[in-house]
Each structure stands twice: as structure tokens, then as C-alpha cells.
Amino acid sequence: MTEKSSTPDDSFHVFDTTLRDGAQREGINLTVADKLTIARHLDDFGVGFIEGGWPGANPRDTEFFARAAAEITFRNAQLVAFGATRRPNAKAADDPQVNALLASGAPVVTLVAKSHDRHVELALRTTLDENVEMVRDTVSYLRSQGRRVFVDCEHFFDGYRANPEYAKAVVRAAAEAGADVVVLCDTNGGMLPAQVQAVVATVAADTGARLGIHAQDDTGCAVANTLAAVDAGATHVQCTANGYGERVGNANLFPVVAALELKYDKRVLPQGALRDMTRVSHAIAEVVNLAPSTHQPYVGVSAFAHKAGLHASAIKVDPDLYQHIDPELVGNRIRMLVSDMAGRASIELKGKELGLDLGGDRELVGRVVERVKERELRGYTYEAADASFELLLREELRGRDGGAGAQQYFRTESWRAITEDRPDGTHANEATVKVWAKGERIVATAEGNGPVNALDRALRVGLEQIYPQLAKLELVDYKVRILEGKHGTSSTTRVLISTADGEGEWSTVGVADNVIAASWQALEDAVTYGLLRAGVEPAP
Amino acid sequence: MTEKSSTPDDSFHVFDTTLRDGAQREGINLTVADKLTIARHLDDFGVGFIEGGWPGANPRDTEFFARAAAEITFRNAQLVAFGATRRPNAKAADDPQVNALLASGAPVVTLVAKSHDRHVELALRTTLDENVEMVRDTVSYLRSQGRRVFVDCEHFFDGYRANPEYAKAVVRAAAEAGADVVVLCDTNGGMLPAQVQAVVATVAADTGARLGIHAQDDTGCAVANTLAAVDAGATHVQCTANGYGERVGNANLFPVVAALELKYDKRVLPQGALRDMTRVSHAIAEVVNLAPSTHQPYVGVSAFAHKAGLHASAIKVDPDLYQHIDPELVGNRIRMLVSDMAGRASIELKGKELGLDLGGDRELVGRVVERVKERELRGYTYEAADASFELLLREELRGRDGGAGAQQYFRTESWRAITEDRPDGTHANEATVKVWAKGERIVATAEGNGPVNALDRALRVGLEQIYPQLAKLELVDYKVRILEGKHGTSSTTRVLISTADGEGEWSTVGVADNVIAASWQALEDAVTYGLLRAGVEPAP
């Protein structure tokens, strides 16, 4: 790549396979909507290629490619379809699996090919020569149809150990047939960096092919193996967000690109993209519904946390003596576990972002920091609940300016939700809410698909009499996380709700000892924020 | 070391610092009893050195050394006290901090020393020459008192970059004064393997000292950095169990020793010790009260889990083609995951794992594959719900063998859950269940912290009259996932429940249009599986 340019060029590829290989991780089960959301995050982050799945192999992946083409305008990435070389003793042009790759409309295809002699014989059950022919024929056919082709040589490193000449013959066949990159895969993940470096260097010299690397983390060295391949001449790295993947996982995209940009001084992402890395990592964890790893390199909340004492004063004098990079370069921050300095700064920044003038009011900011800390300790999270945070900030501002405190459009007297399983197998969900607004007592009852849906409807049916603006509100997303997993259903429950009004979307949070009560809190905030957005004056 | 002997000798050191550097991890807070338990595990596992803490610096560490000497008969390890070089411009023999190291009774002392010129000036506030003198004097004094001494050169790699001659002068001073090993520390964790290898090789050649390596994981390369140092001649590796440590953590002991034993073919632990590795890793996680990482290399429960249907048929033929080592070598095991990407082969393997003989019954396996696919399309996931999968499999087996189908201990007539927010702000959760078991109709009502907790209690209160075995069941984890995020609370909800009976734990799944109904399904499976485990005969 051009090391000083502001955008990466084709000379180095950051290739993401979160949606294909990453989805193999135990516990991840992505819907098409999840995949589209992740693809948007990855494109925003600036990876060059997004491998979306195996179209034709399962209906979800086929649907993903159709919807991605229709719904996403990619700014940085190209979409890649993953598939296999054609069946033995047939023509690629006649192979439905190969044609499904073309039908996906993806401009790039990654073909998985066998390069380990025993895998050819035992898994493909064909001859070594026919396997080479399968690679050549499938690559040529896809090239003739105008596709760019990368070839993933599965089990390459084990295959190279068993039969180096055959492994290299597959690489040569792929490159000669028109594959732009031949990717050497450590599919079983057993390699160490020195071995990877030696093999990649030899294969590059012997075949002249442009090489890529796909590393799995079974020895705990996937990031290092990826960098070792780059040291040996590979110019294409395959990674997954947060290292998700089968067994232990894949090479983690984030430390790989951070090392390339910050340690190698290579431009592999659009300028400035790295500063979004922590946010992107956490957002993708949210979509796959796994807690972000607190100890992940670069992006974990602990990654730049310093314990108090020994180092504290020295860190103040010169933080660079105690951290390997400036955490802001990756969108993370230093955490002094005794000081609220960082907290204050981010509250002020956040206020500015929301257009609320905190006017350098140290006392106000201090009160907000304290409330956020106290609530986060109880399980709230404001990172993913902007609207709840803004309501909290406004409450403190109104308090300072002599206002009534909370932005209150209504006051809850009580509510009740009943879910019933009837003998005929159907379910009934009914909720009743009793609230006060503009001096009136409102009692409303509604049914729903579940208890929270029933509560949401009852609240809005009741309040619409006073606030007709609520008619256009729609609850669009609902997430539940149980905190402290070892206490079963008696543990703390956090609910995040997203609400839309046709013009925008906002998120609110609720925390309680049960899912219904936590949902109610988030619903109250959602409705309050909706009225605030609509410009309605508070009148409890 | 002697590569073929059954025990490691002094030529290579496995040095564990879980109790000192590992304890710096955010969230770890060890009591003396915890430290003694971990020391026993590490000694059993066979590490050569256990760094126990800084005696004199805090009373807990002083007590640990006293009690370890009195209470533990070490079979493999030597206890190591950690401390600092003497104060500037004084004598080591007169320094209370140094004498506390002697008073600990530990036969080995690790001294931390500055080797980065700016740290000497800014943190120690002394001259470069005096720092070298502090190293020389403190090492000589401890040697004169019969202690073995290792010297940790803090911030060595950053120091070497800033002033290589000075960094090497510190190494030389330590070695000349009698330190057995000089440990090069990547304290800020910013190094990459190629850099570590180059520096270690140069320092070894230029100083002739015996070198060790202490790596932090801030680039995600701590294991690889440790191995790179070994490649360059280091013969002493400092690690922590599960990679615990400050910020991101330290080099993880387990993948380091596994690589040395299995990939380098070096004997660094007593023969057979590696087969205890998975157990030791989980036991230490238990003591420090952190959930074992499911995706840790070698020892995670997912480390040898296979998901893709593609591989499953070939794994049956030859598992070695699909795993980098035999999991039994590290005390782990292969696991086949059931998912919609899987096919017949993985169902058969899973049946074998569960001890259910599917007897090559193609029709039965076909029916199971179809049911799993159909249910996964509706949102079920069986890879995280072993017990629900086993119930499904048993149902099909019983059907084939002329049985009644499902393993039914009870039949649900109906249930109801009510959650109420009272005007005083408290919540009430009440559930009523109506079920049939052994011909009896049971109606039971219970309260709980939330609606699901109330349902769980009501079901078990009711059924315990018939099945007293249920008394020991406990719901230990509860997870909720909303599928298809764009439909709010009217979308599909998946609930995963883990239940324990004091001997083991199992997971069940439920999917429905609302969280309460989905929870009920998972609770039904949880109770059914609990009774099956207890050996109770089905009698609906």
C-alpha cells in the first residue's frame, strides 16, 4: 500500500470473515438482520473485503447477499461470496454450487480448495490431479464470468508439512488460472509464528503467487502468525471481529490492524478509522449478544487501566512511559482506577455532543459523574442508551437552573402484567397501567404478544389521550441481558429498548430485579424522550 | 533441559507469577487462603518456580510466605519472593525492604530493576550509575546470604530502544554480581515477536548472560513473544495461569508450556503433567472467582468443539486431520456441536458422545436432522442446550423402539404469571401452574423475584410432592436473546437456562413469541432432564 496516503489501496488487503468463519463460533447464531448490521459496521470501519457467507449452501446466506446488495451502499468494502471448488469429474460451468456464487451478485469470490494430499483423498475422495484440475477449472470459470477470485488453501500448513510439492502445485494452479490472491490457511490452528514465516517465505519464492494468510488461534498465536506471514511477504490478511471463530477463534481483526497501522506504520484502513476501533468492537459484540471481552488487547475496558499507587504519579508526568500506545489512537482511554478525571472529560464531551451547555460547571459535571458511576455499578449502561443518559443530564441541568428536576410528562401510579398459558396452548398477555398526566388519572389496559408488548401498548393507549404525538412511536428493538450469571433468575436484569418515530431512533435502559420491571423503566424513558423530541412541554 | 528425561532440570525454567503479577488483574483480589490453594495447584502441575508476592510490602504477602513454608510440602516448585533493588545511596544490607525478602525464607528472590534510562531518572530519581550500583549491591548481598537471585529488568524493551548500551549495562551488572537469570520484561506489552527475537538474540550475544522473558499481552502476542525469546536463546519463561495480569494480562502459562512440550518437544514439566492442564486451568479460575474462558487455547470448553457439518463426516474418518493435537494430551476433549450447518455425521457423533446408540439408523438420524433444522429455523439453538438436544434425540429413539415418544414426567395444563408494580414502588411476582403427574392434578402457586423465578418455584413446589428428587435442582444461569431485532417486543424470544443438581450442570432452550412462554419451555426441559439424570422412570 501507499504508506502515506489517506486510504488503503489494493496492494494490501484487510479481509474480514466475521460473517462466515466468525459465525462458526460456539454460541453465535446470526440472523440476516444481524449480518446486515455487522456488515455496515465493518464497512464503516474500513475493511477492504467482507466475506458474507456461502450463498446457495443455506437460505440465510442467500438472503443476506440479496438484501446486502439492495440495502447497503458500501463505502469501503467489497462483498465476498464464499464457496468451494467444483465437484470432481464435472465442469465448473455446470456445477450448481459454483453458479450459486455467481447468482449472489458478489463481485469477489473466495474459493476454498484442498491443498493437503490426505484431505483430497479422504474428504474429497478424488485424485490429487483431479483436485488441481478442480481448482484450475473453477477459478477460470469464475474469472471468465467477471469475478475477482481469491483461493483459500484449506489445511495448507499441515499439507505443506506432509507433501510440500503438492501443496505448492495447488498454489501455482490457482495463481495461473487467475486467482488474485492465494490464501494459506492454518485451518487447524496449530502453527507457531516462526513456522508460518518460514513456510510463507518459501512458498512465495517458489511459486511467485500473491499470498494471503488465514490463521486460527489454537496455539494462542493467531495474531502473531498473521503478522509473521506479513513479515514473510503476505499482502492479504483474513481476520474476524473480536477473534470470533470456530474452536478458540480466528485471528482478531483489531490487534492485527492496530499492529499494522501503529507498529508497522502501514496504512491499511482509511485515515482516522482506527479511532473508531473500540466502539466498533463493542458494537459488534452487542449484535452477536456476547459481552465484550474486558481484557481484549487495545479495545478492552481494562486495556489501558492502571492500578493506583506505584505508577500513578509517574503516569501523570509522562503517560507514554507506562503505555505502549496512546489509547485515543484506538478510541479507548486510560483509566486511572482512583480518579474521575476521565469521567469528567467524557461527560463534558458528551454534553457538547448533545448540544447541552454544561458551561464548565464543575459541580454539575461532578454530580453527573457520581450518578453515572453509582448507576453503572448497579448495572446500567449509558454507552448504548444515549436517550436515558440525555434525560439524566437534563434532569441535573433543570435542577441547577431551578427547574423541577426530571423531565416529567407523566407519573406512574402502578402497573400489572399477566401472562397466561391456556389449556388450548395459546397465550394471553394483558397489561394494565395507572398513570397521571396533566392532573388526570388514566387507567388503560391492553393485550400484546408478550408482557412487555402489552405494557408498551397500555402505556401509549393511555397517554395518547393527552399526548397524541405518541401515536407515531414504535418500539423497534428490545434486548435483555442478565448480569451476574451465577444467580439465575433472581439476578439483575438489564433491558435496552430502541424506539423510532419515523425520523430517528433512540435507546433507553432499565435495570431491575426482574425483566418486566426493567422493561417498564426503559419504556418510561422511551416515551419521555419521544415527547421531548416532539417538542412537547413537560406537564406532569 | 534433558529432552527425554521424565522431569525437567534447571536448564529451562517455567516460572509462574500468577500470585504476584497475575493478581494485578482488574477484578482479582486474593486472600492468603486463595494464594495457598493456587500455589498447591501450580506445584502439582509442575512449574519450577512460584513467585508468591512481595513480602514486607504488604502484610498479606508476608503471611503467605510464612504459611506456605509451614503448610505446603512442594514437590516440584521453589517459592520465589519478589522485591526491588535497594534505595539509592544506601547499603543493601541496611535496607529493610531487602531484608524483608531474606526474612520471608524463600530460597529464591526476584529483584525488579530499572533498565530504561528515563525510568531511572523520572521514577527512581537517581543517576544512571547509581542505578547500576543498586543492582550490583543488592544482588551481591542476597547471594552472600545464600539466596538464588533472578533479576527482572523492567521496561527492558522500551529501554533498549531508547538507550541500548545502558540497558545492556544493567544486564551485565546483574549477571556479574551473581544473578542466575536476567529477565527481559516487556512491561508495557507493546512488542511484537520479531522485535523480541532480535533484541533477545543481540543481548544474549553481547552480554553472555542467561536470559529470561516476561511478556505482557497488550498486542495480543504475549505467548508468541515468549516463544520468540526462547527461539533466540532465553531459557526462563515467566507466565501466569490463564494469562491473568494487569491491563490485558500476562503471557498465559498454559499455551506456553503446551507449545514447548508438544510443538518444541521439550520436557519442561514432569511427565504426564500436561494431561492435568485443563483441570488446573479451571480450578485456578474457580479460586480467583472468574468464569473460565470458554475460548482459551487448549483448555477452553470450545477449544476442540467442531460445528461445521462440512468437517463432521471427515472427522469420523480421521480426527487427526481436523485438530492440531489430540485433546487428551492436555486433558480436554473433542465436542461435536449440533447446528443447522451440521448434518448426519455430527448427529451420530453427538449421539455417541451422549452414550445413545443410534446404531447407524439412517432413517432415525434423518428425522433428527430434519427436526433440528426445522427448530433452528424457528430460533432454537442446540449447541448451547445439550440437555434439550438429548431429550429430542431420546424422544425419537423411544418413538422408534415403540415407546410413547417424549420422556414425559408431567403434563402442563396451564400456567399464569403476574408481575405487578405497586403504588409504593415495590414489585410482586406471582405464578400459578396447573400440571398433571402420575395421574394427579397439581395446582401450585409461588412468588419470586421475577415472573420466571416465580414460575420455576411454582413448578418445582408442585412437582416435589411427586418427585422429591427435584429439591436439589437449582437454576444457575438464565439468558435471553431477542431474535430478529427489528420487530421489537413482538419478535421471537429465545431463552437458555442452566440448571445444576450439585453433581453437574445442564442447559435447555425455549423459543416463543414472549419471554415468559419461552422460559416456561426451557424450565419444562430443565426439570425433565433433571429427573432423567436422577434415574427416575417416566410416568406422566
From TrEMBL, chains A, B:
GO biological process, one term: isoleucine biosynthetic process
Pathway, per record: Amino-acid biosynthesis; L-isoleucine biosynthesis; 2-oxobutanoate from pyruvate: step 1/3
Cited Gene3D superfamilies: 1.10.238.260, 3.30.160.270, Aldolase class I
EC annotation from Swiss-Prot or TrEMBL: 2.3.3.21
Record Pfam families: HCS_D2, HMGL-like, LeuA_dimer
Keyword vocabulary terms for this entry: Amino-acid biosynthesis, Branched-chain amino acid biosynthesis, Isoleucine biosynthesis, Transferase
Residue ranges annotated for the Pyruvate carboxyltransferase domain, each copy included: 12-275
GO molecular function: (R)-citramalate synthase activity; 2-isopropylmalate synthase activity
InterPro entries: 2-isopropylmalate_synth_dimer (IPR013709), AIPM/Hcit_synth_CS (IPR002034), Aldolase_TIM (IPR013785), Citramal_synthase (IPR005675), LeuA/HCS_post-cat (IPR054691), LeuA_allosteric_dom_sf (IPR036230), PYR_CT (IPR000891)
Catalytic activity from the UniProt record: pyruvate + acetyl-CoA + H2O = (3R)-citramalate + CoA + H(+)
Domain of life the protein comes from: Bacteria
Similarity-based family: Belongs to the alpha-IPM synthase/homocitrate synthase family.
Stated name of the protein: Citramalate synthase
Organism annotation: Streptomyces silvensis
